[in-house]
């Protein structure tokens, strides 16, 4: 995100963005929650803000009313596990009236639906608890049964029998997963009993404010996924977090069904350095210290999970996770030492890689930029040596030039954005002057930002390395370099975050809404589509799970007028040759062969949406997966003339760390090396092209 919605902002926003998914009270004493008078006024304030300030001009009518209803039901019961089909049919009478109620400040329907949800979840939890407390309860893991893992296209259960059958399988799957994680069946039953009792006990914590926020966000999400309402309590947490006064692991989290999902790792944060967490991993348990017991957090509210993960600097937190790239339901326990993310640790860093090309040695400078940062406090104090992305990068460029590098790689992988000012000024280090980005407001007015300084810090050949987690300001920089044909863009399709958000106070809480959109100087938006690299590298990030296009209701890609601008190098004649050379190398490179096999395997696994409930079958599938991974790793190691490993866990001890203590991934290094080879191809072919042209 940009400036006001920096990576820190994204972290905190994500930490606060979960819907109330599993809050219940006892079915024997289900209390009906009602809206408070301030909520009736606030929903009207939200509508007013959306109508006046949001980028999208969306009319609150019957069609939108139906979408709000669908979104609200999806937010409450995403797995279609609590409501009956008859409940959903009953709610259809409200499909065309929510718009009128919202305009009038009426919230009765929203609370009626939520109270029904409370009743259904309470009924189900009490039945699960009764089942697990029954001494006669037994589960047969020898039957050939399966559980549907993706219920997005399924219907709500039609009656009690179908509801019971779904939950019988779901309970069996949960027990089997714990059993295969080395728990006895008695221990597994105890874990689940505590899980459901904990969810039931949380019922008393659900209040009218929680319901209102959930419903208000069903409305705001119709405008775009980044527009969001914060209640006063959530606003207070947001402001505390913006000051970075709390310590944790440095991860962007969100609720997904009953789990806590990793969205992004904060660059240079503890989780990033540990190298064990990845985007789309699911957190199912949290423990404290080396020997602390893992506490099951399935079904917990997001803020409660975050409270467990946070803690004093230097202490250990244990996370039980379901890896995104593992077999369905397979668990893994990792340890991370808590710390603060320091500005200097997010600063740009440089190094030199040496490669052979056409039998000649070359030195390439690499500048890794984790975020687009600026020390505003130091700037406002008048410090002449304040830190910023552009200033730090300029210094690193001078150091690299003094070492006679032959080319430069700007590494923006996993850079989620930051200051728009810095993105603009960083482009200015590589062009003499000119526009860098266009910003369009809701009225269609376009503001052009650019570089007016004719000085250039580096005028040599360059490449920009990006991936799916390169977002917002990173996309502005990469897009500008591509439009100017100042350098070659290598890597994966970027995130596609091309909108700007502002945070505005309301009488009750505050609203974050999208009020502008970014466009490249070519006229193309970065929204939804992101930046398409000139040379694509393999990626293990699932674009259906990660990226703007994976978000429901994401604003579409579009265009405005192109701004006349200079083009430094004509890639048209040489890109086909560069691409052919790259493709040829991929056929034989051990790391690329390994990554390609991983991508193929992940795509195959995505097609299988049924999870076996037979213990022997599921264990065999997991064994086969681990053996396959081990075999592929050893194939790669053999090709690279490295010693084979006996088990995958041995690999973690062999991985090196960088100067910031981050684990160096062989895949990440292979992508960087190939980017260097692409850059050297560009240098060679550009020289030939210029010679021919002259």
TrEMBL record:
Renumbered to this chain, the signal peptide range is 1-29
Instruction: Write down the superkingdom of origin.
Output: Bacteria
SMART domains from the xrefs?
Answer: PDZ, TSPc
Q: Which GO terms describe its molecular function?
A: endopeptidase activity; serine-type peptidase activity
> Which SUPFAM superfamilies does this entry report, sorted A to Z?
ClpP/crotonase (SSF52096), PDZ domain-like (SSF50156)
GO cellular component terms, A-Z: outer membrane-bounded periplasmic space
**Protein name according to UniProt:** Tail-specific protease
Whose protein is this, by species? Amphritea balenae
